[in-house]
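Sequence in, structure out.
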Amino acid sequence: MTATPGTRPTLTVAGEEDLIDIGFDAVAAYHGQAALAMLAVTFQALRLMLPALSPERPMKRADLVVVSGHPGPGVRDAFEFVTRAVTRGVYTVDRSLPHARLCPGADMSYSWRVSSGDRSVGVALRSGVVPDRFFELIGRGAARSDDENAELSALKRRVADDVLAAAPDTLFDRL
């Protein structure tokens, strides 16, 4: 799980035969730009959770089960690219998770749990990591003006850059 100044972070999982190094840029290319901020947040959550789940060696992606409190496409795509949990049918969205309910009026949590066998680790996004303006703009949905859509697009990129530049343990509380 590496990140050096000026580079995008990576993580490693065990594939069927070999280790797979996954860089954020590959995940972003898979997803696109629609939910770049949450893609980056989820990628950093994985960088924290996977080594906590298996400190000795990279986790086998085929063994990972995911519960997400957030239904968004950036979250789903980050988990899918790294764990293949959606394809394997072991990805669950549970909007009732009580932690990190950061978006007023939205029925979702910015928390996640990854399990393998009897081991499990969860994290919740800390308040203040994502600016309140992000949540305000997201909450406006289809009522956003063109200017607000442009602001949100720029804000998503800024949040992604800031989150990717931070150490994962500064972004989340462990559950």
